[in-house]
Amino acid sequence: MMYDVIIIGAGVSGCAAARELSRYDLKILVVDSAEDVCCGTSKANSAIVHAGYDAKPGTLMAKLNVEGNRMMDQVCQDLDVPFERVGSLVVCRSDEDKSLLEKLLEQGHRNGVPDLRIIGREELVEMEPNITDETQWALYAPTGGIVCPFTLTIAFAENAAANGVQFQFDTCVEKVIPTESDTGRIFRLQTSKGELQAEVVVNAAGVYADRFHNQVSADKIHITPRRGSYNLMDKTAGSHVRHVIFPLPTDKGKGTLVTPTVHGNLLIGPTAVDIEDPEGTNTTADELGAVVQTSGKYIRNIPYRDTITSFAGLRAHEDSHEFRIGEVKDCPGFVDCAGIESPGLTSAPAVGVMVAECVADILKPSARKDFDPVREGILDPKTLTPEAYRELVSTQPAYGSIVCRCESVTEGEIIDAIRRTPGARSLDGVKRRTRAGMGRCQAGFCSPRVMEILARELNVPLEEITKSGGASRIIVGRDKFPQ
Amino acid sequence: MDMNKTKIAIIGGGPAGLAAAIEARKAGVESILILERDRCLGGILNQCIHNGFGLHTFKEELTGPEYAQRFIDQAAELQIPYRLNTMVMGIALAQDGSGDKLITYLNREEGLVQLRAEAVILAMGCRERPRGALNIPGFRPAGIYTAGTAQRLVNIEGFMPGKSVVILGSGDIGLIMARRMTLEGAKVQVVAELMPYSGGLKRNIVQCLNDFNIPLKLSHTVVNIEGKERVEAVTIAKVDEKSRPIPGTEERYECDTLLLSCGLLPENELTSGLGAVISPVTRGPEVNESLETSVPGVFACGNVLHVHDLVDFVSQEAGQAGANAALYVSGGTRTAESEDIRVKAEGGVRYTVPEIINADRLEDTLTLRFRVGAVYTDIYESVYLNDKRILHRKKKIAAPGEMETVVLKKSAFQEVSDLKSITVKLEEE
């Protein structure tokens, strides 16, 4: 199959790029080895919209962070994504460390971050009553925020799809081969599902981006999966802090933060451990212990008893610690979108624009006249008035049936999630789109019901329903004595 | 009956809700409504197809569905109305000074409905502690289920969640599922228990593990889960007295399934939303001798109040809650002149239910249920009113997995003048 553009990787960067490229009259495919969008780094991160004072002035990282932050309101409005500018705080415990805050402040000014200021303990305690006694100073960034990373990624993908972009999942790209043909240069992509061809390849493959880059370029890059572990707490703990709270940054990153999520949970993490395995998203006792220990230094009485899950994600850390976005010099038509580690989620809207501009420079496409930037999210009936809710249930009774009791998710929402493009095909796919199974019982009660709905909607036997695609089947067979 | 008004609303149609409804009706309350979120009445008993239910209540051994059916039949005879597939979204106090409670519920037929009730009986049951809450390190593949989820898949849906199983936690559902999975052809390799004692009933250890040669490893926990898509192996290790894994004691089991039976948590989101005081120990609402929460006219019973081992006791407790709710709506609540007294749980006793007693409001007897915090042998259970010991009972063994019950006569309270304290404790002699 021949495409104008193939994007490798359906994470937030790939999907943002796809959405931006869908403004043009191009035949575009997003390909991913997973069964859905948002299955890598995009699903396991801090869910933070960074203000932009961390990155070194003059870097692409700094530029796209600040731009992405600025774009986030409009993007989230157009795409119906939960986003709140709750503000962020970098806290420190001594006057000595205050100079480091001042350095960050200065860096933030140079990066163009608005409204930054350093606040003293008195104001800090008012903003964050659960700060520890030792914590003295903070850098306050009102433009910092929190976003739902699942919805952002899925919304980019849905909007791209609505504007003509195609998605192909469960397809592992093995090799990218630049080939000269009569009509010019094309790329042949050998995949687990046969060959794909494109004029332009966008390499948004996250922790695998170095693999594809190095297949086509002599200028090698190297990406290290840098693992971060997190603890997620019940909504009962969600108001323990009100802002995104960071410790002072270290050379490994921005440190273990404590933050509310847009859905009202409390999230704590990440750690930073360099590993070899690009699939190594396992948690370890040491790293989970470190999360608890570090956060306790600046936030007191974190109710760890209310933990509902822990998880780990991998940052795609490139050796130069810089976003590598652009056409690869010695391989025309191959566009890198590599090394997208934190603040990658924040930067995604700006990354998408930059990648799209790059591709447009190569292909010189015409703009689509019918591009529609608006995506309507899955209706959450809890947001309706009682009258409107009754009206909805009278016409669509599925909205009257609660499937996930912890998060109050109805069958109507789950059906919507499955019928969308790209739609949910697994328990995790449903979970990321509707939050069914994301609550305090962690799918104990609702998974049999969700499996039933998936099987019915996708018209497949119950046995084939998976947690997250591939071999992740929930059941292995029937009872000895089927009823 | 006005569609949107009822005397007593009962949240949950499991064993607790059913027994409460039946007793309330028998006490003469006409207007009762049970709200049940599942497709049928009976609650979690419907998936408990093993026997052993009803020994205390019916003096015979019934399966879970049979036990539930006896109560469903009684409720039907008494023509107690109920709604199925109905989720209660919230409970609030009416702001008109009536003391009524406003219940918002949702179902496919009626949509979002507000129901006004004079009294509410909370009978929502409990949920299982999931893997995430246990902080078990490792991957997060398919193949990790709470024992109750597995029980539902096997017993209700007819599907096997796995073939080769490790179980963490020796709670009763885990023990029952060890036997159930074995009977269905799975290989249950081991049950690991973090504590130095089992969390389940002795009879379940014997009948579900010993009879099938399934080893129970006490003071062990899971330290790693392997497998990126489906569970491939689970590693367990011995733990020290502070529950920390001891390096070098790891044992790796190749398996496709990890079942968790690591504790049950009362489901009190509605209760908290209503503003009722929640006990940090039981995680259920604090109740008085009438099983009434800190919100007047709101009663609680069964596993939402505190987790029980035996459904017979749930039924008993719920019946009492139903009768007290009936008394409340008829305006017949006994008046009290003396002060409420908070029961002191001491010397190995973790909590009591009820925890607040007013002697004036007692009927003829007071049933106090409690759990101990460790395994004790040859111990005495004692109850003191002020300094006067009114109960001193020898127990050969007392364990956290078995709920204890003492029944005290009202006359014992009346014999103590100026009652200031009630204490339940374990004593060596």
- Biggest sheet descriptor of chain B: 7 strands, mixed
What integer is the average pLDDT of chain A? Answer: 96
Task: Indicate the overall shape of chain A.
Answer: globular
Termini gap of chain A: 46 Å
CA gyration radius of chain B, whole angstroms: 22 Å
By DSSP, the count of extended strands of chain A is 23
Number of helices of chain A: 12
Beta fraction of the residues of chain B?
25-35%
- Give the CA-CA distance, first to last residue of chain B: 58 Å
Q: What's the story with the biggest beta sheet of chain A? A: 8 strands, mixed
Number of E-type strands of chain B: 29
Oligomer: heterodimer
Structural class of chain B: alpha/beta
Average pLDDT figure of chain B: 95
Q: List segments of chain A where confidence is low: pLDDT < 50 over at least 5 consecutive residues.
A: none
Determine the structural class of chain A based on helices, strands and strand pairing. alpha+beta
| Uncertain residue ranges of chain B | none
β-strand percent of chain A reads 15-25%
Helix content of chain A: 25-40%
Largest interface: A-B, 59 and 54 residues
* Shape summary of chain B: globular
Description:
The complex is a heterodimer of chains A (483) and B (429). In chain A, 30% of the residues lie in helices and 23% in strands. Chain A has twelve helices and 23 strands. Chain A has helices spanning 12-21, 60-79, 95-111, 121-127, 149-162, 209-216, 285-295, 344-363, 386-395, 411-419, 427-434, 447-458, and strands at residues 2-8, 28-31, 48-49, 83-84, 88-92, 117-119, 137-141, 145-147, 166-168, 173-181, 184-191, 194-203, 223-233, 244-246, 257-260, 266-269, 273-274, 307-318, 324-327, 334-338, 402-404, 409-410, 477-478. In chain A, strands 1, 2, 9, 10, 11, 12, 19 and 20 form an eight-stranded mixed sheet that branches. In chain A, strands 13, 15, 16, 17 and 18 form a five-stranded antiparallel sheet that branches. In chain A, strands 6-7-5-14 form a four-stranded mixed sheet. In chain A, strand 1, helix 1 and strand 2 (28-31) form a beta-alpha-beta unit. Chain B is globular. Chain B is an alpha/beta fold. The mean pLDDT of chain B is 95. Chain B is built from nine helices and 29 strands. Chain B starts with a strand and ends with a strand. At the A-B interface, helix 7, strand 18, helix 9 and strand 23 of A face strand 7, strand 8, helix 3, helix 4 and strand 11 of B.
